[in-house]
Design brief:
The chain is built from five helices and two strands; from the N terminus they run αββαααα. The chain is mainly α.
Amino acid sequence: MSLVCDMTMNVKQLLVTVLMASAVAFSGCGKKQSSDPSAFEISGVKVDLPKLEKALEANPELLIVVNNAKLEVRYGRFLEAMQVLDKLSNNPALNDTQKKVVTDVIGQFKQVVEKAGPARP
């Protein structure tokens, strides 16, 4: 009798373990991650470089310029980032919508420079 009882307990433990493992494995299914990255916040100012990247994603050469601006931001050189984007705004390859996004982001960097200064110390 005790052998049958031990086997029943082992089956129950195995079943509980399998159910718990499957519950953990499938608990993340169906959750959607936000595919759009949010704007950067620098000194309380939202700088929407992801929106600029999205607007220019069809032209890899223009994205290189945006990446250069992001590099300047990474090192806290906000005035230099703004200058990179200013050169981009004069690029004849930009359409009106893209120029507006570039101009908006330059305006956001102007606010950052006013609040934080031209560079992070």
